[in-house]
Structures are given as C-alpha cells and as structure tokens.
Design a protein that fits this description.
Low-confidence stretches: none
Number of strands: 6
Structural class: alpha/beta
Mean pLDDT: 96
Strand content: 5-15%
Strand order of the largest sheet: 3-2-1-4-5-6
Distance between the termini: 51 Å
Radius of gyration: 21 Å
Largest sheet: 6 strands, parallel
C-alpha cells in the first residue's frame, strides 16, 4: 500500500499506560524521583506496546540533498559541502559518525538528491530523485511526482531496515531555509520567527535570508496542504524523511527526532497523519532560531538542551543512551515487593 494512503493508527492505550505507571511507581525509589526518565520510559512502553520495552537494532539514517535555493546566498557554505560531508560521513570522520560508533548505532547515509555521483559502497543508499531541487523562487522546488517519489523512497528504505528504532539525521546546504519555509507555511508563524543563522550567517546574512524566504512564500501562495507545501518549498531529503517517518510510524518503531530540519519533516508527516507524533521522541532543543517555536507547535518536550545546531543526527545520537536507560529501568529495576524493601523506607532510598 502507498504510504500516503495508509492510516497511521492511534496507539494511546490507557490500560497499558496505567500498568506502566504502576510499575514505575513501585520501583525501589521515591515515587517520581527519576523525573523525566520515567515519562520517557512510559512513552517507550506505549510506542512498543509492552511493559518490558527493548530497543533493538537502532538505525541512524542521514538523509542528504541539495537545494536550488542555495544559489541565493541563504547559507554561509557552498552547495559542494553537501557531497563533501556525505563522503565524510562514509569515511567515519563526521561528528555523527563518531557518535554512532560510540553508541553502537548502525549508520546509513541516503543520497536523496545530491549534486554529485557517489561510488557505491557499504553504508550508502542511492535514492536520488534528481541532482538537487529546483530554485523555489522561480517555481516549485519539486514536482508533485518528484515529491511522491521521494516519500516512497523513504518508506521503502525503512521497510528494508531491521530493528524497532529510527534515529533521524540530515545533510543539505540550504535545508534550514526549506525547513523554515515549511514551518512558516504549515504553522502560520511569520517567516522571520522561523529563520535563523543556519550554517553561520551573520545578522545581515540572516536578514537577507528572511527576505529571500518571504519572497518564496509569496511566490507559492496556494501551496498550503502538507503535500503541496512540501513539493513547493521542501527538499528531497526532507521529503524522503517524511516517507521514512510515515513508514516507521506505521511499523510502530520509535522515531528519535534530531534538530530543526528533522522536526520540520515530522511536522509535515504529522500534518498528514497526526498519530505520527505518538511514536516520536524529540532528542534536543537546538540553537537554531525557530526550533523552540516548532517544538512548541508539536507540543514536544525535548530530552536535551545543549545549544547544538550541527544537525546530522548528532543530537539524536547523544540522546540515545537516555532511551536505553529508560527501558532498562522498566525491565531490570526491582520493585519493593521483589526486593523485600519496605515502602515506608522509600523516602530514604537514594
């Protein structure tokens, strides 16, 4: 079935949530003393549908693509950096490569639409729709057919991956612009509130970027439905990510959302299928202007706030051990009864 035609089911389960909460409340600790780790454990139990959640074969996927809009100076770096960073990922030298190795995360890089031809090798998936999107100031960034193809590519990718966790990452010079455009159009927030420095623009550069993006929105006044907005304003890597998110949600995988661009992809997916958000864990609040507002729109409470603005999936990888710990607490921590500890002693448990 076409992933765009599939309904993502509501997985809220009051009975399971009550059992999970009872389980957490009866661990050998003062009630609620593990703070937000307990809320994370409950969420993971709900997503995986069990009182003993186990995260298996986590897949960190970096979606890469180039943007026609980059020629308008919306980034401090040239488009060639996209393919150069893809090579860096594959060579193991990028931040996300280091973090994936450290935490035992399988790393896959997907060429969704990079202006470069890569030699086939392990860890690289070629799912190129075209060598970069078109200039959104001149017309739609993608045709609807291209957008649907990218979404389908993302869904097929996830279908072929093992495990029950998808961690999202991305790479694409100009993609903070695409994310800001999608955020503004789908939330109604002013583009200036959605736009930040990206790869490192100064204040004047950010102002020019806002002017370009405002002109793009004016160029596409009728692109308001999620799929229309994605095609007119988005990037191939974002559209491929949307397909991956929808498929992961349909398969009831845990979706670990990284920063601003991945959150924008989740926004699009959630506007199509609201129950997608039930499967998401938001890794961090990035330093990119607009991300805090976007998280608020998604009613998301991120796990970390480290001032990160690298992307790549680096924040998702850094948050990963918290998910592992939350599941371990549910599965392995003793209850008062099993440990023979008096509940009256709970206040003294440290």
């Amino acid at each position: 079935m076409d992933i765009l035609s599939r309904v993502i089911d509501d997985i809220e389960d009051a009975a399971l949530a009550a059992r999970l909460q009872h389980q957490l409340d009866n661990k050998t600790k003062p009630r609620g003393s593990l703070g937000r780790l307990e809320a994370l454990a409950l969420r993971l139990g709900i997503i995986l549908g069990t009182e003993a959640p186990l995260l298996q074969a986590p897949q960190l996927v970096v979606f890469a693509g180039d943007h026609g809009l980059a020629e308008h100076g919306v980034s401090a770096y040239p488009s060639d950096v996209t393919w150069q960073m893809v090579e860096n990922f594959l060579a193991g030298g990028a931040a996300v490569s280091v973090l994936a190795r450290q935490h035992g995360l399988a790393l896959t890089v997907v060429d969704c639409g990079v202006r470069h031809d890569f030699a086939p090798r392990p860890g690289l998936v070629i799912a190129k729709v075209a060598p970069g999107t078109a200039d959104a100031l001149q017309g739609p960034a993608m045709t609807e057919a291209q957008c649907r193809q990218a979404i389908d590519n993302g869904a097929r990718l996830v279908q072929g991956l093992p495990g029950n966790v998808l961690l999202l990452g991305e790479m694409g010079i100009g993609n903070t612009s695409a994310a800001a455009l999608l955020m503004s159009r789908l939330t109604g927030l002013d583009i200036a509130d959605c736009t930040g420095a990206g790869t490192g623009l100064d204040a004047d550069g950010v102002q020019r970027k806002v002017e370009v993006l405002r002109a793009v929105l004016q160029r596409h006044p009728d692109a308001r439905a999620p799929l229309q907005a994605l095609a007119a304003l988005g990037g191939f890597e974002i559209a491929t990510m949307v397909g991956a998110v929808l498929q992961a949600a349909a398969e009831r995988r845990v979706i670990v959302v990284d920063g601003f661009i991945t959150s924008a992809a989740v926004l699009v997916a959630a506007r199509m299928q609201p129950a997608v958000l039930q499967r998401c864990v938001f890794a961090h609040r990035s330093g990119e202007r607009g991300h805090a507002l976007l998280l608020a729109q998604l009613r998301a409470e991120p796990l970390l706030d480290l001032g990160l603005r690298l992307g790549e999936g680096s924040g998702a990888a850094l948050a990963w051990p918290l998910l592992v710990s939350a599941c371990a607490i549910l599965r392995e921590m003793a209850s008062f009864d099993s440990a023979g500890v008096s509940r009256a002693s709970a206040a003294t448990v440290v």
